Amino acid sequence: MKQTIAQRIRLARTNKNLDQARFAAKLDVATRTVQRWEKGEQVPDSNYLMRVAKVTGVAPHWLLTGGGDMYARASDAKILPLPTSRYKKIELVSLPLLSSVPGGAPSLIFHPDYVEKYITVDDINDANAFALEVKGSSMAPRIEDGDIIVVSPKLESKSGDICVVRVNDEDTVKRVRVDDQFLHLIPLNPEYEMMVVKKKDVAFMWRVVKVIKSV
Questions:
Q1: 215 within 8 A of 144, measured Cβ to Cβ
Q2: CB atoms < 10 A from the CB of 146, how many?
Q3: Does 138 qualify as catalytic in the annotation?
Q4: Phi and psi for 91 in degrees, rounded to 5?
Q5: Cβ–Cβ contacts within 10 Å for residue 141, how many?
Q6: Cα maximum dimension of the chain
Q7: In what order do the strands lie in the sheet with 148-152?
Q8: Is domain 92-212 given the CATH code 2.10.109.10 in the classification?
Q9: Catalytic annotation on 94?
Q10: Could you tell me the pTM of the whole model?
Q11: Active site residue: 46, 135, 138, 198, which one?
Q12: Annotated catalytic residue: which of 100, 152, 157, 174?
């Protein structure tokens, strides 16, 4: 059976003869963060995965996907020149991954108080932001079944945005078009039909700000 990212992180650490505390210190994270990674409660973003690969010497491709050799060959190494311009500082935040919301027909399965696990993402400036795993293919190919979307209730939603919309206690992910009295919920997949609902029946319309593609 194919290993998970959590199992590969643990294997990379133990092969390096590092306990969780020393491993966390080398990565400049809390020991609890490493514990969450290795239990599968939290998924590190690409920046931290690259740090794990560098500290343990494993191949980044193997760490991310489980494919290829665990340890990169010297001939595979590539040295990239650093640009002289200053980098923008990237802020990393942990967001709750809530229960799934459908990408097809609306469904009564969105529970804001239920957190499945936490994921690490970058540059999200909203204390109330959260993540959802999409089920369904109505928004393919932009958002596909199994992808994770990051939702920001703080940002204003407008026509053309992709949003999580609650209509009559049901939830869906669609591109929206707003007019005076109605909200048009537009799928990106041409096999699905557009839905038109009354604005008075919409409880919220929260903007999707990031899509994390499933591996």
A1: no
A2: 14
A3: yes
A4: -95, 125
A5: 8
A6: 64
A7: 42-43, 115-122, 92-102, 130-135, 148-152, 202-212, 162-167, 170-178, 182-186, 195-198
A8: yes
A9: no
A10: 0.56
A11: 138
A12: 174
pLDDT in tens, 46-103: 678 878 888 998 887 788 778 778 886 544 433 333 333 343 444 567 777 776 555 5
pLDDT in tens, 192-214: 999 999 999 998 899 999 998 87
What would the two tokens of residue 22 be? 């020393």
143 and 134 in contact (C-beta within 8 Å)? yes
Task: Tell me the residue ranges of DSSP E strands in 51-161.
Answer: 92-102, 115-122, 130-135, 148-152
**Strand segments (E) across the chain:** 42-43, 92-102, 115-122, 130-135, 148-152, 162-167, 170-178, 182-186, 195-198, 202-212
Report domain extents, the chain: 5-76, 92-212
SS3 assignment, position 107: strand
Structurally, at CATH architecture level, domain 5-76 sits in Orthogonal Bundle (1.10)
Question: Hunting for tokens 């001939």 — which residue is that?
Answer: 75
